């Protein structure tokens, strides 16, 4: 648990800024949104037959075809488990970092797709529940989620989180 | 297929994923009423570039059908009447129940193959299934 | 006569020794988190297995009304779902 002592001095504005941007309600909201979305994304892909997930990924012709089966196997589990960890606040910072890495990879993929003008019929982000999003929509959504990870990573208190189990609470 | 003709059965489920392919599928099924399904099926793929981007491909398909000796008036009447729509819908529902989201999807017995694969991949899977069926028959 | 050491008595004390409580809480936290993740994994594995088991019967679905090629008594049935566009 990170406790940042309160301060009114301008000299301590970096820590005050961090406290403002990591308000508990914002952290909870961010965890629920981002964690929840990742749980849904992973779960929806895991409910699809493996061959269908491979086919979804093969749309992204920039990904080497030799690795798409491996990615199709591993990625949904990573999404589901990191999303769950974030949702319940278990190893919150590592989970947030794993989620951030995935989002950065997705953003990079979308940028490449957009630049190369590759047509992708179905993002495949939510496998079974096939919301049809364009690469630009996916990019915007992922950037918003990356922004939401900021208060989670810089939080100074665990609230409604497993990481706070049994920890003594201190008032801000 | 020819080399496995007596050991393998192919069942075709034309799966309409968009409005244009719905028209094409109904067109092929209507051609089947004239015992010309496989000719229409082949024609649709051979001339795909001529019709698959049209918002209403029926007229172009009828032009192509006329050139292939099909009764275009009967075809037009059949497609416009919508009598094949329930069959198309039933196949869409069936595909959904099998969690098919893209085409082509092929099931060789219970083994799912999604996307365009090489003939060698299909042949290998068919041989594996034939071997498995043989072993099961011997037991 | 030297007094006997009180070590043994101290060890038999019912008071919880200092420093283990946070460790116990940490263990509880790890266990709870691990259990939560395992439950999620179990749910997914269970659903996937039941879907895989239901696939063969579903694939026995009606062939009537569909065009076929090859032998009706074939050991291998290929069901092709394809779109004309």
Q: What do these coordinates show?
A:
- The complex is a heterotrimer of chains A (172), B (139) and C (85).
- Chain A is mainly α and 172 residues long.
- Chain A has helices spanning 13-21, 24-46, 50-58, 68-88, 92-116, 135-153.
- Chain A is built from six helices and no strands.
- The radius of gyration of chain A is 18 Å and the shape is globular.
- Chain B folds into two domains: 19-97; 104-138, no CATH class.
- Chain B has helices at residues 19-32, 37-46, 48-51, 58-67, 72-81, 85-97, 119-138; strands at 8-14, 105-108, 111-114.
- The relative contact order of chain C is 0.04.
- Chain C has 85 residues and is mainly alpha-helical.
- Helices cover 52% and strands 12% of the residues of chain C.
- The chains are: A mainly alpha (172), B mainly alpha (139), C mainly alpha (85).
- Chains B and C meet through strand 1, helix 1, helix 2, helix 6 and strand 2 of B and helix 2, strand 1 and strand 2 of C.
Core attributes:
heterotrimer, A: 172 residues, mainly alpha, 0% strand, globular, disordered N terminus, B: 139 residues, 2 domains, two-stranded antiparallel sheet, 3 strands, elongated
Q: In brief, what are we looking at here?
A:
The complex is a heterotrimer of chains A (172), B (139) and C (85). Chain A is built from six helices and no strands.
Q: How much is the radius of gyration of chain A in Å?
A: 18 Å
Count of helical segments of chain A?
6
What pair of chains forms the biggest interface? B-C, 51 and 27 residues
Rg calculated over all Cα atoms of chain B: 17 Å
Q: Provide the low-confidence segments of chain B as ranges.
A: none
Main sheet record of chain B: 2 strands, antiparallel
Structural topology:
The complex is a heterotrimer of chains A (172), B (139) and C (85).
Chain A lengths: L12 H9 L2 H23 L3 H9 L9 H21 L3 H25 L18 H19 L19
Helix pairs in contact in A: 2-4, 2-6, 3-4, 4-5, 5-6
Chain B lengths: L7 E7 L4 H14 L4 H10 L1 H4 L6 H10 L4 H10 L3 H13 L7 E4 L2 E4 L4 H20 L1
Antiparallel strand pairs in B: 2-3
Chain C lengths: L6 H5 L9 H39 L8 E3 L5 E7 L3
């Amino acid at each position: 648990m990170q406790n940042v002592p309160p301060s009114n001095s301008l000299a301590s504005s970096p820590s005050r800024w961090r406290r403002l941007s990591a308000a508990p309600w914002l952290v909870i909201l961010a965890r629920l949104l981002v964690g929840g979305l990742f749980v849904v994304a992973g779960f929806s892909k895991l409910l699809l037959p493996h061959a269908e997930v491979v086919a979804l990924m093969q749309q992204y012709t920039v990904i080497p075809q030799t690795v798409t089966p491996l990615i199709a196997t591993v990625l949904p589990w990573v999404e589901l488990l990191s999303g769950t960890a974030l949702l319940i606040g278990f190893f919150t910072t590592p989970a947030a970092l794993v989620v951030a890495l995935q989002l950065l990879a997705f953003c990079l993929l979308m940028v490449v797709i957009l630049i190369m003008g590759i047509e992708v019929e179905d993002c495949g982000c939510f496998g079974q529940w096939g919301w049809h999003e364009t690469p630009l929509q996916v990019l915007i959504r992922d950037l918003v989620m990356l922004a939401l990870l900021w208060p989670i990573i810089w939080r100074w208190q665990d609230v409604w989180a497993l990481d706070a189990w049994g920890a003594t609470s201190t008032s801000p | 297929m020819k080399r496995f003709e007596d050991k393998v059965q192919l069942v075709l489920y034309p799966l309409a994923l968009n409005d244009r392919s719905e028209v094409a599928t109904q067109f092929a099924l209507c051609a089947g009423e004239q015992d010309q399904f496989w000719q229409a099926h082949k024609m649709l793929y051979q001339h795909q570039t001529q019709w698959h981007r049209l918002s209403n491909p029926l007229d172009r398909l009828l032009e192509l059908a006329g050139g292939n000796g099909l009764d275009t008036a009967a075809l037009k009447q059949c497609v416009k009447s919508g009598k094949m729509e329930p069959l198309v819908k039933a196949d869409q529902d069936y595909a959904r129940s099998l969690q098919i989201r893209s085409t082509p999807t092929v099931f060789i017995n219970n083994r799912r193959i999604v996307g365009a694969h090489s003939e060698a991949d299909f042949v290998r899977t068919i041989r594996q299934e034939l071997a498995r069926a043989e072993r099961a028959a011997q037991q | 006569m030297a007094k006997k050491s009180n070590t043994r008595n101290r060890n038999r004390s019912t008071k919880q020794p200092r420093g283990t409580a946070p460790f116990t809480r940490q263990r509880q936290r790890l266990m709870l988190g691990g259990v939560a993740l395992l439950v999620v994994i179990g749910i997914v594995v269970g659903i996937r297995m039941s879907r895989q088991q239901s696939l063969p019967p579903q694939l026995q679905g009606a062939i009537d009304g569909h065009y076929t090629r090859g032998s009706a008594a074939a050991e291998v049935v290929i069901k092709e779902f394809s779109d004309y566009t």
